[in-house]
Amino acid sequence: MNVTVTATTSSSENVTATSSCDDFIKNPIDFINSHLLDEEDVDNVNVSDKLKSLINNVVLSKIKRDDISLLNDTPLHEVVHGQLVRYRGMIQDQLEQGQFIVAFYRSETDGAMRTGLFSEFDTEKTSSIRFGSEIMKTCNVLYAVPIPGENSWVKSARKKRSNEVNNVTVAGGSNVAKRTLQAVDEMDLDADQERKVSKPITNSDVNKKSLLVNNADLNYPLPTDSGLTCVLRCYDEMDSEIRVNDMVEVIGVLNVQPNPAEDVKAENKKNMQVDIEGDLIDFGGFPTPSDRLPPASLVPRINVLHIEKLSHNNPLIESPIIWEDIRTKGYLLAMLQTVLLGDSLAAEYVLFHMLARSYAQDKTVGKFSVNISGCPLFNGKPINLAKKLYEFISQLVSNSYLLPLTLQFLNTSQICPKKDYEKERLNSSLLQLNDGFHLLIDETVMEPGNLQPTGVANLSAVARLMKHQKVEYDFTYHKIEFASIVNVLVVSEGRSCLPCDFRVHLNPSEDFVGYESRVDSIMSQLNGLFANSVRSYITNMRLQNFTMTDVAAVVENDFVEMRRSDPDSMTGSDFSDLLVVARVFALSECATNLNIDMWNTTKELENRRKQSIERQPSTNPLDEGDHDIMWH
Fold this sequence. Notes:
Oligomer: single chain
Helix content: 25-40%
Protein backbone atom coordinates (compact mmCIF):
# COMPACT_ATOMS: atom_id res chain seq x y z
CA MET A 1 0.00 0.00 0.00
CA ASN A 2 2.18 2.87 -1.30
CA VAL A 3 1.34 6.55 -1.07
CA THR A 4 3.05 9.70 -2.22
CA VAL A 5 3.65 12.25 0.51
CA THR A 6 4.29 15.91 -0.24
CA ALA A 7 5.36 18.46 2.37
CA THR A 8 5.50 22.18 1.61
CA THR A 9 8.26 24.17 3.29
CA SER A 10 8.25 27.83 4.30
CA SER A 11 10.41 28.56 1.23
CA SER A 12 7.69 27.08 -1.03
CA GLU A 13 9.86 24.11 -1.96
CA ASN A 14 8.09 20.77 -2.23
CA VAL A 15 9.56 17.66 -0.68
CA THR A 16 8.14 14.56 -2.31
CA ALA A 17 8.74 10.98 -1.24
CA THR A 18 7.14 7.61 -1.75
CA SER A 19 6.76 5.56 1.39
CA SER A 20 4.80 2.72 2.87
CA CYS A 21 2.04 3.46 5.34
CA ASP A 22 2.89 0.19 7.06
CA ASP A 23 6.46 1.35 7.56
CA PHE A 24 5.31 4.66 8.93
CA ILE A 25 3.11 2.95 11.52
CA LYS A 26 5.89 0.59 12.52
CA ASN A 27 8.72 3.10 12.49
CA PRO A 28 7.55 6.74 12.32
CA ILE A 29 10.80 8.29 13.56
CA ASP A 30 12.88 6.70 10.78
CA PHE A 31 10.31 7.94 8.25
CA ILE A 32 10.49 11.46 9.67
CA ASN A 33 14.28 11.53 9.75
CA SER A 34 14.51 10.27 6.18
CA HIS A 35 12.52 13.26 4.94
CA LEU A 36 14.50 16.05 6.59
CA LEU A 37 16.39 18.48 4.40
CA ASP A 38 20.11 18.45 3.81
CA GLU A 39 22.47 20.45 6.02
CA GLU A 40 22.87 23.35 3.59
CA ASP A 41 19.14 24.03 3.65
CA VAL A 42 18.68 24.17 7.40
CA ASP A 43 19.22 27.93 7.71
CA ASN A 44 16.46 28.67 5.19
CA VAL A 45 13.82 26.29 6.46
CA ASN A 46 11.74 26.17 9.61
CA VAL A 47 12.30 22.51 10.38
CA SER A 48 9.43 22.15 12.81
CA ASP A 49 6.93 23.63 10.32
CA LYS A 50 8.23 21.32 7.62
CA LEU A 51 7.81 18.32 9.88
CA LYS A 52 4.28 19.31 10.90
CA SER A 53 3.29 19.62 7.25
CA LEU A 54 4.84 16.24 6.49
CA ILE A 55 3.15 14.53 9.43
CA ASN A 56 -0.25 16.04 8.71
CA ASN A 57 -0.12 14.86 5.12
CA VAL A 58 0.59 11.30 6.20
CA VAL A 59 -1.28 10.87 9.47
CA LEU A 60 -4.40 12.86 8.65
CA SER A 61 -4.69 12.19 4.92
CA LYS A 62 -3.21 8.81 4.08
CA ILE A 63 -3.57 6.48 7.05
CA LYS A 64 -6.89 5.25 8.37
CA ARG A 65 -7.10 5.76 12.11
CA ASP A 66 -8.42 2.27 12.66
CA ASP A 67 -5.19 0.95 11.18
CA ILE A 68 -3.30 2.38 14.16
CA SER A 69 -3.38 0.32 17.37
CA LEU A 70 -5.58 1.83 20.08
CA LEU A 71 -3.49 1.65 23.23
CA ASN A 72 -6.58 1.54 25.48
CA ASP A 73 -7.49 -1.89 24.09
CA THR A 74 -4.08 -3.29 23.22
CA PRO A 75 -2.01 -5.17 25.85
CA LEU A 76 1.38 -3.58 26.39
CA HIS A 77 3.13 -6.78 25.40
CA GLU A 78 1.65 -6.44 21.90
CA VAL A 79 3.19 -3.01 21.23
CA VAL A 80 6.80 -1.90 21.10
CA HIS A 81 8.77 1.20 21.84
CA GLY A 82 8.80 3.58 18.88
CA GLN A 83 5.67 2.48 17.00
CA LEU A 84 2.70 4.65 16.10
CA VAL A 85 -0.30 4.32 18.46
CA ARG A 86 -3.60 5.97 19.30
CA TYR A 87 -4.90 6.73 22.79
CA ARG A 88 -8.22 8.02 24.11
CA GLY A 89 -8.45 9.66 27.50
CA MET A 90 -9.23 12.73 29.58
CA ILE A 91 -6.63 15.40 30.30
CA GLN A 92 -6.26 15.19 34.08
CA ASP A 93 -3.33 17.57 34.61
CA GLN A 94 -0.84 19.80 32.84
CA LEU A 95 2.70 19.06 34.01
CA GLU A 96 5.89 21.10 33.76
CA GLN A 97 7.03 21.85 30.25
CA GLY A 98 9.61 19.58 28.66
CA GLN A 99 12.41 20.36 26.20
CA PHE A 100 13.44 18.86 22.90
CA ILE A 101 16.03 19.36 20.17
CA VAL A 102 14.43 20.38 16.90
CA ALA A 103 17.22 19.27 14.54
CA PHE A 104 20.78 18.02 14.80
CA TYR A 105 23.43 16.04 12.92
CA ARG A 106 25.54 13.07 14.01
CA SER A 107 29.03 13.42 12.66
CA GLU A 108 29.95 9.79 13.42
CA THR A 109 27.12 8.39 11.24
CA ASP A 110 26.08 9.46 7.78
CA GLY A 111 25.89 13.14 8.67
CA ALA A 112 22.17 13.30 7.91
CA MET A 113 19.88 15.59 9.84
CA ARG A 114 17.91 14.10 12.74
CA THR A 115 15.07 15.52 14.78
CA GLY A 116 14.30 15.39 18.49
CA LEU A 117 10.64 15.97 17.73
CA PHE A 118 8.36 13.07 18.70
CA SER A 119 11.13 11.10 20.43
CA GLU A 120 13.19 11.02 23.61
CA PHE A 121 16.66 12.57 23.46
CA ASP A 122 19.38 9.91 23.20
CA THR A 123 22.18 10.86 25.62
CA GLU A 124 24.72 8.43 24.21
CA LYS A 125 27.58 9.83 22.10
CA THR A 126 26.42 13.38 22.73
CA SER A 127 29.93 14.68 22.08
CA SER A 128 29.53 13.77 18.41
CA ILE A 129 26.35 15.78 17.92
CA ARG A 130 26.44 18.89 15.72
CA PHE A 131 23.36 21.12 16.03
CA GLY A 132 21.49 23.05 13.37
CA SER A 133 20.19 26.60 13.63
CA GLU A 134 17.19 25.53 15.70
CA ILE A 135 18.47 24.00 18.92
CA MET A 136 16.05 23.81 21.84
CA LYS A 137 12.32 24.32 22.12
CA THR A 138 9.77 23.55 24.79
CA CYS A 139 6.82 21.21 24.60
CA ASN A 140 3.74 20.94 26.78
CA VAL A 141 3.44 17.81 28.90
CA LEU A 142 -0.06 16.56 29.76
CA TYR A 143 -1.17 13.71 31.99
CA ALA A 144 -4.11 11.71 30.62
CA VAL A 145 -6.28 9.14 32.37
CA PRO A 146 -8.91 6.78 30.93
CA ILE A 147 -12.16 8.68 30.37
CA PRO A 148 -13.84 8.57 33.82
CA GLY A 149 -16.81 6.32 34.43
CA GLU A 150 -16.69 4.76 30.98
CA ASN A 151 -19.39 2.11 30.98
CA SER A 152 -18.73 -1.52 30.11
CA TRP A 153 -20.72 -1.46 26.87
CA VAL A 154 -18.52 1.39 25.57
CA LYS A 155 -15.35 -0.58 26.26
CA SER A 156 -16.81 -3.75 24.74
CA ALA A 157 -17.98 -1.99 21.57
CA ARG A 158 -14.67 -0.20 21.15
CA LYS A 159 -12.66 -3.36 21.72
CA LYS A 160 -14.85 -5.29 19.30
CA ARG A 161 -14.21 -2.68 16.66
CA SER A 162 -10.46 -2.78 17.34
CA ASN A 163 -10.43 -6.57 17.08
CA GLU A 164 -12.34 -6.46 13.79
CA VAL A 165 -9.76 -4.08 12.38
CA ASN A 166 -6.87 -6.14 13.76
CA ASN A 167 -8.18 -9.23 12.02
CA VAL A 168 -8.25 -7.54 8.60
CA THR A 169 -5.26 -8.56 6.48
CA VAL A 170 -4.09 -5.97 3.98
CA ALA A 171 -2.51 -6.63 0.63
CA GLY A 172 0.78 -8.42 0.91
CA GLY A 173 -0.32 -10.41 3.92
CA SER A 174 0.75 -7.85 6.52
CA ASN A 175 -1.41 -6.97 9.47
CA VAL A 176 -1.25 -3.19 9.83
CA ALA A 177 -2.83 -2.59 13.19
CA LYS A 178 -1.77 -5.50 15.35
CA ARG A 179 1.89 -6.33 15.41
CA THR A 180 3.10 -9.66 16.66
CA LEU A 181 6.39 -10.24 18.39
CA GLN A 182 7.63 -12.12 15.32
CA ALA A 183 6.93 -9.07 13.16
CA VAL A 184 8.92 -6.94 15.53
CA ASP A 185 11.90 -9.29 15.35
CA GLU A 186 11.86 -9.06 11.54
CA MET A 187 11.92 -5.27 11.43
CA ASP A 188 14.85 -3.65 9.65
CA LEU A 189 16.80 -1.40 11.98
CA ASP A 190 18.89 1.57 10.91
CA ALA A 191 22.52 0.72 10.24
CA ASP A 192 23.69 3.28 12.79
CA GLN A 193 21.23 1.91 15.39
CA GLU A 194 20.35 5.48 16.35
CA ARG A 195 16.70 4.62 16.84
CA LYS A 196 16.70 1.68 19.24
CA VAL A 197 13.58 -0.50 19.29
CA SER A 198 13.21 -2.12 22.67
CA LYS A 199 12.22 -5.68 23.25
CA PRO A 200 8.44 -5.84 23.68
CA ILE A 201 7.15 -6.15 27.20
CA THR A 202 6.29 -9.80 27.71
CA ASN A 203 3.47 -11.34 29.73
CA SER A 204 5.95 -12.32 32.41
CA ASP A 205 7.20 -8.74 32.60
CA VAL A 206 3.63 -7.52 33.01
CA ASN A 207 3.01 -10.06 35.78
CA LYS A 208 6.18 -9.06 37.60
CA LYS A 209 5.13 -5.43 37.49
CA SER A 210 1.48 -5.95 38.37
CA LEU A 211 2.18 -5.13 42.00
CA LEU A 212 3.74 -1.83 40.94
CA VAL A 213 0.73 -1.08 38.76
CA ASN A 214 -1.64 -1.75 41.65
CA ASN A 215 0.36 0.34 44.09
CA ALA A 216 1.17 3.21 41.77
CA ASP A 217 -0.98 6.28 42.27
CA LEU A 218 -2.33 6.69 38.77
CA ASN A 219 -4.65 9.55 39.77
CA TYR A 220 -7.97 8.15 38.58
CA PRO A 221 -10.88 10.53 39.36
CA LEU A 222 -13.29 7.71 40.30
CA PRO A 223 -12.61 4.71 42.54
CA THR A 224 -14.14 2.42 39.90
CA ASP A 225 -11.83 3.62 37.11
CA SER A 226 -9.06 1.45 35.69
CA GLY A 227 -6.95 1.26 32.58
CA LEU A 228 -3.86 2.78 31.07
CA THR A 229 -2.75 6.30 31.95
CA CYS A 230 -0.32 8.14 29.67
CA VAL A 231 1.99 11.13 29.60
CA LEU A 232 1.49 13.17 26.42
CA ARG A 233 4.24 15.39 24.97
CA CYS A 234 2.62 17.98 22.68
CA TYR A 235 4.70 20.09 20.29
CA ASP A 236 4.38 23.53 18.69
CA GLU A 237 1.16 24.53 20.44
CA MET A 238 -0.81 21.68 18.86
CA ASP A 239 -2.67 21.47 22.18
CA SER A 240 -3.51 25.19 22.37
CA GLU A 241 -7.26 24.47 22.32
CA ILE A 242 -7.05 21.58 24.80
CA ARG A 243 -7.96 22.13 28.43
CA VAL A 244 -7.91 20.09 31.63
CA ASN A 245 -10.91 17.68 31.69
CA ASP A 246 -11.23 17.57 27.89
CA MET A 247 -11.73 14.18 26.26
CA VAL A 248 -9.09 13.68 23.57
CA GLU A 249 -7.79 11.21 21.05
CA VAL A 250 -4.09 11.38 20.26
CA ILE A 251 -1.89 9.79 17.62
CA GLY A 252 1.77 9.60 18.48
CA VAL A 253 5.01 7.72 18.91
CA LEU A 254 5.01 5.31 21.83
CA ASN A 255 7.69 5.30 24.49
CA VAL A 256 7.56 2.32 26.86
CA GLN A 257 11.23 2.28 27.77
CA PRO A 258 11.67 1.73 31.53
CA ASN A 259 13.42 4.49 33.43
CA PRO A 260 17.16 3.70 33.70
CA ALA A 261 18.65 2.71 37.01
CA GLU A 262 19.82 5.64 39.13
CA ASP A 263 23.51 4.98 38.54
CA VAL A 264 23.01 4.75 34.78
CA LYS A 265 20.90 7.91 34.82
CA ALA A 266 23.57 9.75 36.79
CA GLU A 267 26.30 8.65 34.36
CA ASN A 268 24.19 9.75 31.40
CA LYS A 269 23.67 13.17 32.96
CA LYS A 270 27.45 13.59 33.20
CA ASN A 271 27.64 12.97 29.46
CA MET A 272 24.88 15.46 28.63
CA GLN A 273 27.20 18.47 28.59
CA VAL A 274 27.73 19.40 24.96
CA ASP A 275 30.11 22.01 23.55
CA ILE A 276 28.21 24.17 21.04
CA GLU A 277 30.39 26.85 19.47
CA GLY A 278 32.37 27.27 22.68
CA ASP A 279 29.36 27.26 25.01
CA LEU A 280 28.97 24.29 27.34
CA ILE A 281 25.27 23.36 27.32
CA ASP A 282 24.15 21.06 30.16
CA PHE A 283 21.23 19.02 28.81
CA GLY A 284 21.14 17.01 32.03
CA GLY A 285 19.94 20.03 33.96
CA PHE A 286 16.60 20.42 32.22
CA PRO A 287 13.42 19.74 34.22
CA THR A 288 12.13 16.21 33.90
CA PRO A 289 8.50 16.15 35.08
CA SER A 290 8.20 12.52 34.01
CA ASP A 291 10.72 11.55 36.69
CA ARG A 292 8.04 12.17 39.33
CA LEU A 293 5.71 9.67 37.64
CA PRO A 294 5.81 5.86 37.47
CA PRO A 295 8.18 4.56 34.79
CA ALA A 296 7.20 4.53 31.12
CA SER A 297 6.77 0.76 31.26
CA LEU A 298 3.79 1.38 33.58
CA VAL A 299 2.66 4.84 32.42
CA PRO A 300 3.60 5.01 28.73
CA ARG A 301 4.78 8.26 27.19
CA ILE A 302 3.33 9.33 23.84
CA ASN A 303 5.09 11.88 21.67
CA VAL A 304 2.03 13.39 20.04
CA LEU A 305 1.78 13.88 16.28
CA HIS A 306 -1.90 14.83 16.37
CA ILE A 307 -4.39 15.61 19.15
CA GLU A 308 -8.13 16.06 18.77
CA LYS A 309 -10.78 17.09 21.27
CA LEU A 310 -13.74 14.67 21.39
CA SER A 311 -17.37 15.73 21.73
CA HIS A 312 -18.37 12.20 22.76
CA ASN A 313 -16.86 8.76 23.30
CA ASN A 314 -19.64 6.57 21.94
CA PRO A 315 -17.85 4.09 19.63
CA LEU A 316 -21.10 3.32 17.79
CA ILE A 317 -21.17 6.64 15.93
CA GLU A 318 -18.55 8.52 13.95
CA SER A 319 -20.25 11.92 13.78
CA PRO A 320 -23.69 13.02 15.05
CA ILE A 321 -26.66 12.59 12.74
CA ILE A 322 -30.35 13.36 13.19
CA TRP A 323 -31.96 10.11 14.34
CA GLU A 324 -34.91 9.18 12.16
CA ASP A 325 -36.56 6.24 13.95
CA ILE A 326 -39.01 7.90 16.35
CA ARG A 327 -40.08 4.46 17.58
CA THR A 328 -36.85 4.32 19.61
CA LYS A 329 -38.27 6.87 22.05
CA GLY A 330 -41.44 4.83 22.62
CA TYR A 331 -39.51 1.64 23.39
CA LEU A 332 -37.18 3.49 25.75
CA LEU A 333 -39.99 5.27 27.62
CA ALA A 334 -41.82 1.97 28.15
CA MET A 335 -38.71 0.50 29.76
CA LEU A 336 -38.04 3.59 31.87
CA GLN A 337 -41.64 3.53 33.06
CA THR A 338 -41.13 0.04 34.44
CA VAL A 339 -37.91 1.10 36.21
CA LEU A 340 -39.82 4.06 37.72
CA LEU A 341 -42.70 1.96 39.05
CA GLY A 342 -45.09 2.85 36.24
CA ASP A 343 -44.71 6.66 36.39
CA SER A 344 -44.80 7.89 32.78
CA LEU A 345 -44.08 11.54 33.70
CA ALA A 346 -40.93 10.61 35.63
CA ALA A 347 -39.85 8.49 32.66
CA GLU A 348 -40.12 11.52 30.36
CA TYR A 349 -37.95 13.69 32.61
CA VAL A 350 -35.29 11.02 33.08
CA LEU A 351 -35.09 10.76 29.28
CA PHE A 352 -34.79 14.55 29.08
CA HIS A 353 -31.96 14.36 31.61
CA MET A 354 -30.06 11.94 29.34
CA LEU A 355 -30.54 14.16 26.26
CA ALA A 356 -29.82 17.55 27.84
CA ARG A 357 -26.56 19.49 27.60
CA SER A 358 -25.36 23.05 28.08
CA TYR A 359 -25.53 24.72 24.69
CA ALA A 360 -24.42 28.33 25.24
CA GLN A 361 -21.31 30.19 26.33
CA ASP A 362 -22.97 30.48 29.73
CA LYS A 363 -22.57 26.85 30.81
CA THR A 364 -25.70 27.01 32.99
CA VAL A 365 -27.95 27.46 29.94
CA GLY A 366 -29.43 24.08 29.06
CA LYS A 367 -28.40 22.20 32.21
CA PHE A 368 -31.01 19.73 33.39
CA SER A 369 -30.51 18.37 36.90
CA VAL A 370 -33.49 16.30 38.04
CA ASN A 371 -34.74 15.25 41.47
CA ILE A 372 -36.89 12.11 41.52
CA SER A 373 -38.47 12.50 44.95
CA GLY A 374 -40.96 10.25 46.70
CA CYS A 375 -38.86 7.09 46.56
CA PRO A 376 -41.24 4.67 48.33
CA LEU A 377 -40.55 2.50 51.36
CA PHE A 378 -40.92 -1.27 51.29
CA ASN A 379 -40.70 -3.18 54.56
CA GLY A 380 -39.60 0.02 56.28
CA LYS A 381 -36.71 0.75 53.89
CA PRO A 382 -36.51 2.65 50.58
CA ILE A 383 -36.62 0.30 47.62
CA ASN A 384 -33.49 0.04 45.49
CA LEU A 385 -34.83 2.55 42.98
CA ALA A 386 -31.58 4.52 42.69
CA LYS A 387 -29.49 1.40 42.15
CA LYS A 388 -31.81 -0.12 39.52
CA LEU A 389 -32.27 3.21 37.74
CA TYR A 390 -28.51 3.64 37.60
CA GLU A 391 -28.01 0.11 36.26
CA PHE A 392 -30.48 0.90 33.48
CA ILE A 393 -29.05 4.32 32.61
CA SER A 394 -25.48 3.00 32.58
CA GLN A 395 -26.49 0.66 29.77
CA LEU A 396 -27.42 3.66 27.61
CA VAL A 397 -25.03 6.55 28.30
CA SER A 398 -21.28 6.45 27.76
CA ASN A 399 -20.07 7.68 31.17
CA SER A 400 -21.80 7.55 34.53
CA TYR A 401 -21.29 7.01 38.26
CA LEU A 402 -23.57 6.16 41.20
CA LEU A 403 -22.78 8.22 44.31
CA PRO A 404 -24.40 7.04 47.57
CA LEU A 405 -24.60 10.29 49.54
CA THR A 406 -23.90 9.03 53.06
CA LEU A 407 -22.77 11.11 56.02
CA GLN A 408 -19.55 9.13 56.25
CA PHE A 409 -18.74 9.87 52.62
CA LEU A 410 -19.43 13.59 53.00
CA ASN A 411 -17.48 13.94 56.25
CA THR A 412 -14.39 11.98 55.22
CA SER A 413 -13.89 12.48 51.46
CA GLN A 414 -11.90 14.92 49.36
CA ILE A 415 -14.13 15.37 46.32
CA CYS A 416 -12.52 18.45 44.71
CA PRO A 417 -9.10 18.24 42.99
CA LYS A 418 -6.20 19.61 45.01
CA LYS A 419 -2.70 20.62 43.98
CA ASP A 420 0.17 18.67 45.54
CA TYR A 421 3.18 20.98 45.41
CA GLU A 422 5.63 18.36 46.68
CA LYS A 423 4.86 16.04 43.78
CA GLU A 424 4.04 18.97 41.45
CA ARG A 425 0.78 17.48 40.27
CA LEU A 426 -2.96 17.91 40.60
CA ASN A 427 -4.48 15.17 42.77
CA SER A 428 -7.67 14.06 41.12
CA SER A 429 -10.99 13.51 42.86
CA LEU A 430 -14.58 12.49 42.29
CA LEU A 431 -15.71 15.83 40.83
CA GLN A 432 -13.00 15.98 38.16
CA LEU A 433 -15.21 14.77 35.34
CA ASN A 434 -15.44 15.23 31.57
CA ASP A 435 -18.22 17.18 29.88
CA GLY A 436 -21.38 15.16 29.30
CA PHE A 437 -20.87 12.95 32.35
CA HIS A 438 -23.99 11.53 34.09
CA LEU A 439 -23.85 11.53 37.89
CA LEU A 440 -26.64 9.79 39.81
CA ILE A 441 -26.82 10.69 43.51
CA ASP A 442 -28.63 8.40 45.93
CA GLU A 443 -29.95 10.47 48.85
CA THR A 444 -32.07 7.62 50.20
CA VAL A 445 -29.00 6.24 52.01
CA MET A 446 -28.52 9.46 54.00
CA GLU A 447 -28.77 8.64 57.71
CA PRO A 448 -29.44 11.04 60.62
CA GLY A 449 -26.36 12.76 62.01
CA ASN A 450 -24.20 15.86 61.90
CA LEU A 451 -22.25 17.23 58.99
CA GLN A 452 -18.68 18.12 59.89
CA PRO A 453 -16.97 21.13 58.23
CA THR A 454 -15.59 18.79 55.55
CA GLY A 455 -19.09 17.45 54.94
CA VAL A 456 -20.54 20.92 54.58
CA ALA A 457 -17.79 21.85 52.11
CA ASN A 458 -18.37 18.69 50.08
CA LEU A 459 -22.13 19.19 49.96
CA SER A 460 -21.58 22.79 48.90
CA ALA A 461 -19.21 21.61 46.15
CA VAL A 462 -21.86 19.26 44.74
CA ALA A 463 -24.46 22.05 44.95
CA ARG A 464 -22.12 24.45 43.12
CA LEU A 465 -21.62 21.88 40.39
CA MET A 466 -25.37 21.49 39.94
CA LYS A 467 -26.27 25.17 40.14
CA HIS A 468 -23.32 26.81 38.36
CA GLN A 469 -21.69 23.91 36.46
CA LYS A 470 -18.38 24.73 38.13
CA VAL A 471 -15.99 23.00 40.52
CA GLU A 472 -13.43 24.79 42.67
CA TYR A 473 -9.94 23.28 42.42
CA ASP A 474 -7.84 23.79 45.53
CA PHE A 475 -4.39 25.27 44.88
CA THR A 476 -3.71 25.75 48.62
CA TYR A 477 -3.11 29.50 48.42
CA HIS A 478 -6.14 30.12 46.25
CA LYS A 479 -8.98 28.32 44.50
CA ILE A 480 -9.76 28.34 40.80
CA GLU A 481 -13.14 27.52 39.28
CA PHE A 482 -13.18 25.04 36.39
CA ALA A 483 -16.23 24.58 34.17
CA SER A 484 -17.75 21.13 34.62
CA ILE A 485 -20.66 20.20 32.35
CA VAL A 486 -22.17 17.30 34.29
CA ASN A 487 -25.78 16.07 34.24
CA VAL A 488 -26.93 15.23 37.77
CA LEU A 489 -29.89 13.04 38.72
CA VAL A 490 -30.88 12.81 42.41
CA VAL A 491 -33.13 10.12 43.90
CA SER A 492 -34.58 10.97 47.32
CA GLU A 493 -37.49 10.27 49.66
CA GLY A 494 -38.49 13.91 50.19
CA ARG A 495 -37.31 16.95 48.33
CA SER A 496 -33.57 16.80 47.71
CA CYS A 497 -31.27 18.95 49.83
CA LEU A 498 -29.47 19.82 46.58
CA PRO A 499 -30.53 22.55 44.10
CA CYS A 500 -32.09 20.58 41.25
CA ASP A 501 -33.55 22.31 38.19
CA PHE A 502 -36.58 20.01 37.96
CA ARG A 503 -38.27 17.98 40.65
CA VAL A 504 -40.61 15.12 39.74
CA HIS A 505 -42.47 13.48 42.60
CA LEU A 506 -42.85 9.78 41.91
CA ASN A 507 -46.40 8.49 41.46
CA PRO A 508 -46.07 4.67 41.54
CA SER A 509 -48.71 2.61 39.80
CA GLU A 510 -46.99 -0.79 40.04
CA ASP A 511 -46.62 -3.20 42.96
CA PHE A 512 -43.38 -2.95 44.93
CA VAL A 513 -43.25 -6.74 45.25
CA GLY A 514 -41.06 -8.20 42.52
CA TYR A 515 -39.79 -4.75 41.48
CA GLU A 516 -36.14 -5.74 41.07
CA SER A 517 -36.93 -8.89 39.11
CA ARG A 518 -39.14 -6.87 36.71
CA VAL A 519 -36.34 -4.40 36.11
CA ASP A 520 -33.83 -7.20 35.57
CA SER A 521 -36.23 -8.73 33.06
CA ILE A 522 -36.48 -5.62 30.90
CA MET A 523 -32.74 -5.02 31.14
CA SER A 524 -32.18 -8.49 29.72
CA GLN A 525 -34.00 -7.26 26.60
CA LEU A 526 -31.61 -4.34 26.27
CA ASN A 527 -29.00 -6.03 24.12
CA GLY A 528 -27.79 -6.48 20.59
CA LEU A 529 -28.94 -4.21 17.80
CA PHE A 530 -31.80 -2.77 19.85
CA ALA A 531 -29.49 -1.62 22.65
CA ASN A 532 -27.07 -0.09 20.16
CA SER A 533 -29.97 1.69 18.47
CA VAL A 534 -31.04 3.30 21.76
CA ARG A 535 -27.44 4.27 22.61
CA SER A 536 -26.97 5.86 19.19
CA TYR A 537 -30.30 7.70 19.49
CA ILE A 538 -29.30 9.26 22.82
CA THR A 539 -25.81 10.34 21.73
CA ASN A 540 -26.88 11.60 18.31
CA MET A 541 -29.81 13.69 19.50
CA ARG A 542 -27.96 15.04 22.52
CA LEU A 543 -25.32 16.61 20.26
CA GLN A 544 -27.72 18.22 17.77
CA ASN A 545 -28.09 21.95 17.34
CA PHE A 546 -31.58 23.26 17.98
CA THR A 547 -33.72 26.20 16.91
CA MET A 548 -37.22 27.51 17.65
CA THR A 549 -37.36 30.30 15.09
CA ASP A 550 -40.57 28.94 13.55
CA VAL A 551 -42.53 29.46 16.77
CA ALA A 552 -40.61 32.31 18.37
CA ALA A 553 -43.54 34.74 18.09
CA VAL A 554 -45.99 32.22 19.59
CA VAL A 555 -43.63 31.46 22.49
CA GLU A 556 -43.17 35.16 23.22
CA ASN A 557 -46.93 35.82 23.19
CA ASP A 558 -47.56 32.86 25.50
CA PHE A 559 -45.05 34.21 28.00
CA VAL A 560 -46.72 37.63 28.01
CA GLU A 561 -50.14 36.03 28.49
CA MET A 562 -48.98 33.75 31.32
CA ARG A 563 -47.34 36.67 33.10
CA ARG A 564 -50.52 38.71 32.76
CA SER A 565 -52.82 35.97 34.12
CA ASP A 566 -50.60 34.84 37.04
CA PRO A 567 -47.26 36.62 37.53
CA ASP A 568 -46.25 34.41 40.47
CA SER A 569 -46.56 31.18 38.51
CA MET A 570 -44.42 32.29 35.57
CA THR A 571 -41.24 34.14 36.49
CA GLY A 572 -38.32 34.70 34.16
CA SER A 573 -36.64 31.64 35.67
CA ASP A 574 -39.77 29.54 35.12
CA PHE A 575 -39.92 30.60 31.48
CA SER A 576 -36.24 29.78 30.99
CA ASP A 577 -36.88 26.29 32.42
CA LEU A 578 -39.83 25.91 30.07
CA LEU A 579 -37.64 26.67 27.07
CA VAL A 580 -35.07 24.09 28.22
CA VAL A 581 -37.79 21.44 28.52
CA ALA A 582 -39.10 22.39 25.06
CA ARG A 583 -35.64 21.90 23.62
CA VAL A 584 -35.06 18.42 25.02
CA PHE A 585 -38.63 17.35 24.28
CA ALA A 586 -38.18 18.27 20.61
CA LEU A 587 -34.85 16.43 20.50
CA SER A 588 -36.49 13.37 22.06
CA GLU A 589 -38.94 13.50 19.14
CA CYS A 590 -35.96 13.40 16.73
CA ALA A 591 -36.56 17.03 15.75
CA THR A 592 -34.15 19.97 15.74
CA ASN A 593 -36.82 22.64 15.28
CA LEU A 594 -39.69 23.32 17.69
CA ASN A 595 -43.23 23.35 16.31
CA ILE A 596 -46.56 24.41 17.83
CA ASP A 597 -47.62 20.90 18.86
CA MET A 598 -44.33 20.29 20.65
CA TRP A 599 -44.57 23.63 22.43
CA ASN A 600 -48.09 22.87 23.65
CA THR A 601 -47.03 19.40 24.84
CA THR A 602 -44.11 20.96 26.71
CA LYS A 603 -46.47 23.28 28.59
CA GLU A 604 -48.71 20.33 29.50
CA LEU A 605 -45.75 18.32 30.82
CA GLU A 606 -44.57 21.18 33.02
CA ASN A 607 -48.12 21.76 34.35
CA ARG A 608 -48.44 18.06 35.22
CA ARG A 609 -45.05 18.09 36.95
CA LYS A 610 -45.87 21.13 39.10
CA GLN A 611 -49.34 19.85 39.98
CA SER A 612 -47.95 16.48 41.11
CA ILE A 613 -45.67 18.30 43.56
CA GLU A 614 -48.43 20.56 44.86
CA ARG A 615 -50.61 17.55 45.67
CA GLN A 616 -47.97 16.05 47.97
CA PRO A 617 -48.23 16.69 51.74
CA SER A 618 -45.24 18.61 53.10
CA THR A 619 -43.30 16.25 55.41
CA ASN A 620 -39.84 17.70 54.79
CA PRO A 621 -38.80 21.17 56.02
CA LEU A 622 -37.03 21.66 52.71
CA ASP A 623 -40.39 21.41 50.95
CA GLU A 624 -41.41 24.72 52.49
CA GLY A 625 -40.35 27.64 50.32
CA ASP A 626 -37.38 27.95 48.00
CA HIS A 627 -34.33 26.32 49.58
CA ASP A 628 -32.14 27.12 46.59
CA ILE A 629 -31.20 30.39 48.26
CA MET A 630 -28.90 28.47 50.60
CA TRP A 631 -26.78 27.49 47.58
CA HIS A 632 -26.65 30.95 46.00
